[in-house]
Design brief:
This protein has about 90 residues and is an alpha+beta fold. About 40% of the residues lie in helices and about 35% in strands.
């Protein structure tokens, strides 16, 4: 009878360590997910660029109409190629 009690204690101990291991894996996984969520949640600095009014129409290699739009952030001017026929008044730049 004592032998059976020792066996049951060993089984319970093995079950407990398995349970602890799984719990630690869940904690690690949730910590990684939280860290990724904080990293990609918009903490990146973004500014608005406004359309200067300059644009050029063109056709892409696949035959779609595209438009090249010039934008400014107040400091820099740059061109953006957009599928379609118009340039948005503002765009977000990272």
């Amino acid at each position: 009878m004592i032998y059976q009690n020792e066996n049951s204690l060993q089984n319970k101990s093995a079950e407990q360590s398995t349970s602890d291991f799984l719990a630690m894996n869940r904690i690690k996984r949730s910590a990684v997910i939280s860290l990724l969520a904080m990293t990609f949640s918009g903490a990146v600095f973004a500014m608005m660029a406004t359309h200067t009014g300059r644009m050029e129409y063109a056709t892409s290699v696949t035959g779609q109409q595209i438009v090249k739009c010039e934008y400014t952030t107040g400091f820099d001017k740059f061109w953006v190629t957009i599928r379609g026929g118009f340039c948005p008044a503002t765009i977000e730049v990272e």
